[in-house]
UniProtKB/TrEMBL annotation:
The lineage of its organism: Bacteria, Bacillati, Bacillota, Bacilli, Candidatus Onthousia. InterPro entries: Cro/C1-type_HTH, Lambda_DNA-bd_dom_sf. This is Helix-turn-helix transcriptional regulator. GO terms for molecular function: DNA binding. Keywords: DNA-binding.
Length: 156
């Protein structure tokens, strides 16, 4: 797996951009973007989505889940779909929230809040979940309706 920060840096360099250019596109401070690129801070889902749209790549590619660039059918994250698809994946795998939470190291109340929509998972937490299911981030967040399965990725 390519660290998502490394993939972000590669795409930025390949497009002849500086960190300050991307920070401006994302409407954040340059040092904030720099931390995201170094993987020292979790990049918000909305910001990673803006980057994927800017570079015209899928989230799976940008986050290092896949090495294949696919152009997304939808450019927005569908927060309602996140809830629906997390529930769908859990049920397809015949897991209770308690059992899944134990396997991925989350509190059950935390995971439950993702399925109910009370809270949106962070990018890092969603990466743990899609890694557990070997699923596509683009599918889980509603950017595509094509369910894809990948090999497991390693998370820090």
């Amino acid at each position: 797996m390519v660290e998502n920060g490394n993939r972000m840096a590669i795409l930025r360099h390949n497009n002849g951009l500086l960190q300050k250019d991307i920070a401006k596109i994302l409407n954040v401070k340059e040092n904030t973007y720099s931390k995201w690129e170094k993987c020292s801070n979790d990049i918000p889902l909305e910001k990673i989505n803006v980057l994927a749209n800017y570079y015209d790549v899928n989230l799976d590619y940008l986050l290092g889940i896949s090495n294949k660039i696919e152009h997304s059918e939808k450019l927005k994250i569908d927060y309602k779909k996140i809830c629906e698809r997390l529930l769908e994946l859990r049920k397809e795998n015949h897991l209770t929230q308690a059992k899944l939470s134990d396997k991925i190291g989350f509190f059950q109340t935390t995971y439950s809040s993702f399925e109910t929509g009370a809270r949106c998972p962070t990018t890092h937490k969603l990466l743990y979940i899609v890694n557990f299911y070997n699923a596509s981030m683009d599918y889980v967040v509603g950017r595509t309706d094509r369910k894809k399965i990948y090999k497991s990725i390693h998370l820090n």
